[in-house]
Amino acid sequence: MGMLKQLMPLGQSTILGQTIDNFLSSKLSEIVVVVGYKAQEVINAIGNRQVKVVINPDYQQGMGTSIAAGLSLISSKVQGIMIALADQPFIDRQIIDILIEAFNTGIRGIVIPVYKGRRGNPVIFNISYKQELLALKADIGGREIIVRHPEDVTEVIFDTDDVINDIDTEDKYDLAKDRITKLPKDT
After folding, report:
1. What residue ranges of the chain have pLDDT lower than 50?
2. What is the tens place of the pLDDT at every residue in 86-102?
3. What's the CATH class of domain 5-180?
């Protein structure tokens, strides 16, 4: 994209700022933001938002190291761990809260949003998966845990492709900029 996409302007904020604000407006009890590349710039952009921030010095080794860094700051009272991507600014509080409700009322330990048969993000893992999450390598994220435990997965069906899309091209960024101007102010 030619620059750090999380810091690209989006509406009155940035891609990352909009994403964090959506999570802050949800029922989540705490939010940990993992930064790596250009960490200080990203931290400055986060500003005074009420989140915990951890720097992942090994970010180049993949998402697994970022998950481990984030887990280092979670509270011992947490029952579930939601793993989200910084470049999905249209995962709004309704999506987040629906996933939380499915986790809280369900009997399975992994909750995944699905759109038209495709699994997306964010994903919630029961705290019992913490050691497996800490052991993740490379850029696979939690997928290998999901593959190992299909019997423990709850899929939550959504009618929006927001759960499967992120901003990873100029075209998607242009669409996001157009879309953000049309959103109601409370999302």
Report:
1. 187
2. 999 999 999 999 999 99
3. alpha beta
